[in-house]
């Protein structure tokens, strides 16, 4: 490996090229990794079949890129091994990424819940990462497909867009399966299997859920949103839920979807600030008020109407027994939807599951059984909550591999 001080120019890929490191995927993790490794002096080839790098960054955060979260902590990530992400996340923090953003003079703001966004455009983040790659003299091979990968004599030999390239180190940074139209493929899992690494079943996550059967009527509420606590398994999220023409969405539901399994219920608390005595207290205060009217004072009008008719409580509160009112509050605080599916990888913001962490070093992201092979970012079985956590994992794992490879 040459010294970083060695004057180099960014090289184009020739018919056959030898590098120190080949990074597969010019997304968030791959660009960060390539830049770090290049600036350390490694000769790096960064490959992507898209002509343009970082397509997910460009559309993220409504075009403003929610690039990190100040509350990043290992418990905000889903993985078969909840401890795996700790090392990389502690060595490259949101403040480290913020320092980089500040160095490039990119203006940003905190929106809510520690989520940091660009004031301007997500293009600034991609430009910054490409400038960092240029500072490391990283060679780009964009708009080129990976045709084959072989490992022989300690070298990874690849055919990329009809040309050969080799390196002693190969970094899998090709992401998960979410949003194929932006370039997502199963390359990471194919390579994992080729190199005998286990893969935790990939599932769509941060994804809208669909309703069918009797619950199909809730689709009539399309466009209605309300603050709720949505729960799947042991995970609970207090944010907005949104009814859609296919079922349920909004941040609370997207978060819960990452923990949801087919056939299970998602429980929604429509009255997160109230207890089971709510309607009994209302009855004492306003006995002449009808149940549906009382509910309309607490929830969006159309939602209140649908829920009231499902609860089949009619008439003035004064005429409804306390037991039934407590029962209604209980149902509204534990409303169980049983989604018949999700909107799938076409709409999922991320993929939960991926290359099993048991086969990787948490310090370097290197495969324990294949020296020189690394996996980073969403390709790995580490998935963050909504709100900038997934990019923070991409940066942190990218830096870990970029410094070690
Ligand atoms: P990423 O998917 O970014 O990059 C993988 C790269 O590999 C791609 O460039 C792809 O083209 C390339 N590739 C795949 N297969 C290939 C093949 N066979 N050959 C060559 N190249 C191949 N997160 C967050 O923290 N804040 C946010 O605001 C958002 N917002 C958001 C919005 C939307 C609509 C989506 C879909 C996702 C988000 N995310 C997010 C999630 C975030 O975008 C995601 O977790 C990271 O981009 C993952 O980074 P990676 O580099 O691991 O994969």
UniProtKB/TrEMBL annotation:
Q: Does the keyword Protein biosynthesis apply?
A: no
**Superkingdom assignment:** Bacteria
Q: Which residues form the RsdA/BaiN/AoA(So)-like insert domain?
A: 203-350
Question: What are its cofactors?
Answer: FAD
Give residue ranges for domain RsdA/BaiN/AoA(So)-like Rossmann fold-like.
20-403
Q: Where is the signal peptide?
A: none
Spell out the Pfam families in the cross-references.
HI0933_like, HI0933_like_1st
Fetch the Gene3D superfamilies from UniProt.
FAD/NAD(P)-binding domain, HI0933 insert domain-like, Translation factors
Q: Which UniProt keywords apply?
A: FAD, Flavoprotein
Q: Which PANTHER family match?
A: OS12G0638800 PROTEIN
What's the name of the protein?
A: NAD(FAD)-utilizing dehydrogenase
Source organism per UniProt: Pacificimonas flava
């Amino acid at each position: 490996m040459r010294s970083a001080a060695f004057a180099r120019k960014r090289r184009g890929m020739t018919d056959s090229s030898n590098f120190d490191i080949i990074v597969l995927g010019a997304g968030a993790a791959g660009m960060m990794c390539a830049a770090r490794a290049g600036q350390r002096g490694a000769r790096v080839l960064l490959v992507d079949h898209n002509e343009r790098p970082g397509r997910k960054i460009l559309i993220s955060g409504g075009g403003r890129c929610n690039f990190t979260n100040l509350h990043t902590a290992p418990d905000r990530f889903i993985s078969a091994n909840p401890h795996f992400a700790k090392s990389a996340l502690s060595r490259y923090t949101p403040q480290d990424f913020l320092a980089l953003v500040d160095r490039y003079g990119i203006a940003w703001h905190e929106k809510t819940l520690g989520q940091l966004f660009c004031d301007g455009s997500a293009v600034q983040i991609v430009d910054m990462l490409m400038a960092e790659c240029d500072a490391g003299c990283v060679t780009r091979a964009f708009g080129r497909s990976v045709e084959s990968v072989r490992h022989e004599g300690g070298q990874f030999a690849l055919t990329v867009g009809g040309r050969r390239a080799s390196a002693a180190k190969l970094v899998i940074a090709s992401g998960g399966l979410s949003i194929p139209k932006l370039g997502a493929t199963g390359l990471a899992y194919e390579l994992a299997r080729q190199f005998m690494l286990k893969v935790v079943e990939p599932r769509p996550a941060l994804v809208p859920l669909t309703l069918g059967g009797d619950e199909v009527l809730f689709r009539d509420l399309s466009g209605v949103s309300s603050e709720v606590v949505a729960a799947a398994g042991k995970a609970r999220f207090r944010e907005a839920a949104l009814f859609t023409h296919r079922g349920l969405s909004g941040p609370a539901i997207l978060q819960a979807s990452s923990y949801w399994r087919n056939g299970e219920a998602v429980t929604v608390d429509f009255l997160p600030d109230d207890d089971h005595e709510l309607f009994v207290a209302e009855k004492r205060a306003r006995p002449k008020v009808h149940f549906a009217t009382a509910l309309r004072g607490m929830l969006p009008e159309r939602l209140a109407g649908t829920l009231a008719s499902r609860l089949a409580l009619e008439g003035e509160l004064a005429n409804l027994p306390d037991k039934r009112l407590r029962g209604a509050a209980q149902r509204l605080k534990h409303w169980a939807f049983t989604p018949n599916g999700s909107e799938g990888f076409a709409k999922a913001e991320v993929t939960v599951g991926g290359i099993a962490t048991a086969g990787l070093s948490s310090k370097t992201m290197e495969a324990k059984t294949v020296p020189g092979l690394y996996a980073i970012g969403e390709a790995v079985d580490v998935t963050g909550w909504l709100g900038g956590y997934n990019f923070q994992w991409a940066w942190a794992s990218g830096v870990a591999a970029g410094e070690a490879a």
